[in-house]
Description:
The chain has helices spanning 23-32, 61-69, 84-87, 96-107, 112-116, 118-134, 142-147, 150-159, 166-177, 183-206, 212-218, 228-258, 261-269, 274-284, 316-319, 354-371; strands at residues 2-4, 13-15, 35-36, 55-58, 74-75, 139-141, 220-221, 224-225, 290-295, 299-301, 304-306, 311-315, 372-377, 389-390, 396-397, 401-406. By secondary structure, the chain is an alpha+beta fold.
Amino acid sequence: MALRADPDGPAVTLDLTGETSPYPFFQYMRRTEPVWHGALMDHTQVPPELKPNDEWVLFGYDGVFQAFRDDRVFSSAAYDKTIGLVMGHTILAMGGKEHHDHRNLVAKAFRATALERWEPSAIAPICTQLVDEIKNDGGADLVKAVTFEFPTRIIATLLGLPRDDLDLFRRLSFDLISIPTDIMAGLNAAAELHDYFLDQVEQRRHTPTDDIIGDLVAAEIDGKKLTDEAIIAFLRLLLPAGLETTYRSSGNLLYLLLTHPEQLAMVYHDRSLIPVAIEEGLRFETPLTMVTRTTTEEVDIGGKTIPPDAQVDLCMASANRDESRWTDPNTFDIRRPRQAHIAFAGGIHMCLGMHLARLETRVMLNSLFDRVQDLAFVVDDGTGAESRIVGLTFRSPNKLPVTFSPAA
Ligand code: HEM
């Protein structure tokens, strides 16, 4: 199914299956209709009562930035009616004072300085172990062997879940994330996770622990603590927020480095370049391409007037290639001058886990580069299916076949 940008204009289409790149469509829209009265969805199957009132998409950096900053007019409260059905009332749907108070309570555990303690004790050993398992094999699919696996193991360890529960936790996380395609599996996982996390919270109310659930149980501001339900809603949100995005972004970065071998060599030999490579990877192939807001009142943006109660998609992937901000934005180049991207959103809901995502990816790359050499992309792995980055809302490589030898 493809969406035509302009029925009377050139044949620029958006492949709604995500099989082909959306970037030519985004570029066309940025240049012609950066504030577009339209939808990036196929609504033919949606019953009329469930169709949004009015739909708009923001493609340019300035518009997306403005909408993230103006959280009163571009409200995220509608998350309660979507992901809220399985996760409860989460921080993402909150605004104003409620969001401010809640975020203050949970933010401490995710500060860059608070996360440092996890690097030697949890994150590095997990990444090392995963690479050790494959380093003598001559090659591997890095999606299966590394990128899909490390964020789950890391978050389970940081939360302080028992090692024996990893398989259960992995299954429930996967089922919860599958909710758009398998609603019953998602609902059952949400209920099971509720009971599972409640038990973990109760244990920590009796015996405090040095882990993220322990931090959340102990968190207190002005004598106020998080309730059990608030902690559980937050923990359930961490699964899609923290797992799906990080596994995709690290896969995208590896794909981009493997398909730009001269840049891979630069980063391999000079590890101080890893942080800039991570940022350029997030800009160039944003793992979560868009999020949605609802207008609470009429608003002027980019010369257009959006009415109240309209659904507005903020297309961060398009904003991250805005030519008014980046020279030659369709080129992946870790040497480009530094300029903040918007992959982690902005404003009050700016990603709480961004320091963790960066830390995990840096440690994963270092572990890989320390243990293998001559890393090369396998263009034809004999399956007939090309390895490439796919997806519309979420984007990542379908596989990453590589060859290597153990580092000397
Ligand atoms: C590369 C990886 C990641 C990307 C690209 C990413 C992206 C985002 C974006 C775009 C938002 C805003 C959503 C919206 O406003 O509708 C967000 C919020 C959030 N993210 Fe991330 N995220 C990543 C990793 C993580 C990790 C590792 C965690 C935690 C384990 C996390 C936890 C959160 C939370 C809790 C929020 C809600 C913050 C709030 O509402 O105040 N994220 N993230």
